Amino acid sequence: MKSGPTIQDIAAEAGVSKSTVSLVLQESPRIKAETAEKVREAARKLGYVYNRGAATLRGRRSTTIGMVINDLTNPFFVELLVAIERVLAQSGYTTLMAHTAENLETQTRVLRSMREQNVAGLIMSPALGTSDDLPAEIQSWGIPLVLVMRPMGADVDTVGVDNEYGFALATEHLIEQGHTRIAFAGNRKGYAVANQRRQGYLSAMAKHSLSVNDDWIIDVELTPEGGRKAVRAIFEMKPRPTAVVCYNDQVAIGVLHELDRMGKRAGKALAVVGCDNVVAAEHTNPPLTTLFAGADKLGTIASETLLARLSETQEDEKPAVQYFAVPALVVRESSVGADATTSAATKKQALVAGER
Amino acid sequence: MKSGPTIQDIAAEAGVSKSTVSLVLQESPRIKAETAEKVREAARKLGYVYNRGAATLRGRRSTTIGMVINDLTNPFFVELLVAIERVLAQSGYTTLMAHTAENLETQTRVLRSMREQNVAGLIMSPALGTSDDLPAEIQSWGIPLVLVMRPMGADVDTVGVDNEYGFALATEHLIEQGHTRIAFAGNRKGYAVANQRRQGYLSAMAKHSLSVNDDWIIDVELTPEGGRKAVRAIFEMKPRPTAVVCYNDQVAIGVLHELDRMGKRAGKALAVVGCDNVVAAEHTNPPLTTLFAGADKLGTIASETLLARLSETQEDEKPAVQYFAVPALVVRESSVGADATTSAATKKQALVAGER
DNA sequence: CTGAAAGCGCTTACAG
DNA sequence: CTGAAAGCGCTTACAG
């Protein structure tokens, strides 16, 4: 921690006051071009490094944004994080990252730390079981908050996905393929997003007058292991479902794997649909049909929502943003078998392209 | 950005000086327990939030660590990041995250930003093509640096993997299975880690007096797409290799997928070995044999190396750490076919367990 | 055991 | 167009 030259040193070197140096560093038009150049030259010569912390302390405006993520083992959230970091960096903000691993105590600790670090704003995907009061509490700290993926009420900026629509779409796709007994894997009780997804599934079934057995709605962990359990459960039912809508791609990957282990193939023995279109979904065997909402786009919108909030003044404060992306279905072999895949995939890929 | 109470306010509330408040917050034993309790009570009452930035400015000691990652689309680096963030958080440090996506300009920008943020130390996995001078430059800034996964000389702290040993191990495993024509997929030219991995492969082949055709060493992108290209190349060779060692799991996943698309199965048509043991490797079809070095352990060691560096004084400065983990092979179906998998996997899993 | 004072490196009215 | 001065919220010798 050796401390380099300060604006004071530059001022001495350039023969001006430190006020002038500060103004030059901020590219203020109030300083004559000639003087400005002299100052910049001195800064270069001394190897000056701007001290953002000091500026934040004095100017009362921070340029770091906190990003709190619940589950980085899910590649969808990684894509989201990367997009957010990229957009914020472009706007001159630095990203403070923290991972909660769905642990509420970790989340509390992390939020305190971010507050102490004086973040200008927060983007957060709350851990499961987060109290409904948390968003209001964070806002009471004076820190703008954007929630991603997991909504917690209409009065806080939220960027997510229309899960109900998406899961109805996925279910209808399976119904179109002739399936009538369709399971839902990954129904975690008391979990808002799971409720939305199940609701989408149920509404599509109801719309086509298909009945749903209670045991088709399978409550398993939202991991590959959960997917494997779901397959074992399905193959013990009789008559058994011939298709399954999975909570997300992580679950679906477990489903594909367990089928493979049983010597069966997704798309033939059991039609499978996932959600998130993670990068790996294209490379599973067989490739996975899945809902696409665009982590990159969602991350961009979340960042822009926060940036807009940061630049607004007290008076022109806008109501909370509630953005829910409409997902599209990317059809691959896991839901239609090897034969139909090419044409269907091509058709739907075009649809996806049109969406963006 | 509303500013809350400061130590000044607490001092007034508690009827002491701000020096005393500061000392209490630092849990100094110099303050009487009774006074300390009075101060803490006042802080609680006023909803005080510590301003770490101000402390850093005055105390000249920062508690943020910069983490620069080259490729977060590779889950191995995500595991590494998560481990590092966890260990640093436990020691009271905050992680500033940046992603370079292998882009040198982004890396330069990001490093400047971290320097302006006054990070106490840096953990970095340098982007491809990073100049050999960079570590020395960073150290000249007075910022301790730990390199992960990509070594750049003996005079900078480095935590990585013994790639040559690992790839020899992987290659020998295939030779043991009776393969004599073995390819290497993912040989990026001029890339130090790729050189090490190729060298391990070559030395195992040489040790067993097996000749290597030039075209068996396949230069493709280090992605699933690269793996697919490698498979197409292999199946055009005659006589063609019957096994392939892949640069990493990303490449191997592409190999598995292309084989599946050709109606062939890894482990039968072509034995496949990857490297990293990413979480997904367990869930591919078929499951992937791969080298395991333990991202979690590597991340922990990298963090601890940096923390040790941060707490050392000028005099007791230790020579650069050069830690290279010895990888183990996790044998799954992709290299041995369905029959042999259970027993072999069990045996080797035990080996892996013993390693930790 | 506690307090008064100086100062970390900046920014921002204000004066000229 | 530029400078002198005050101050952001802390920490740290130093004095008592």
Report on the structure:
The structure is a homodimer of 356-residue chains. Chain A is of the alpha/beta class and 356 residues long. Chain A folds into three domains: 7-50, 434 Repressor (Amino-terminal Domain) (Orthogonal Bundle); 64-161 and 295-325, Rossmann fold; 163-292 and 327-355, Rossmann fold (3-Layer(aba) Sandwich). Chain A has helices spanning 7-14, 18-25, 33-46, 52-59, 75-90, 104-116, 134-140, 163-176, 192-207, 224-234, 249-261, 295-311, 333-355, and strands at residues 64-69, 94-99, 121-124, 145-148, 157-161, 182-185, 217-218, 243-246, 271-275, 289-292, 322-325, 328-330. In chain A, the strands form two sheets. Chain A has a six-stranded parallel beta sheet, sandwiched between helices. The first copy, chain A, has a six-stranded mixed beta sheet with strand order 7-6-8-9-10-12, sandwiched between helices. In chain A, helix 1 crosses helix 3, helix 5 packs parallel to helix 12 (295-311) and helix 10 packs across helix 11 (249-261). The model of chain A is unreliable at 340-356 (pLDDT under 50). The interface between A and B is large, with 57 and 57 residues. The first copy, chain A, binds a DNA duplex (16 and 16 nucleotides) through residues 3, 6-8, 16-20, 22-23, 25-26, 30-32, 35, 50-60.
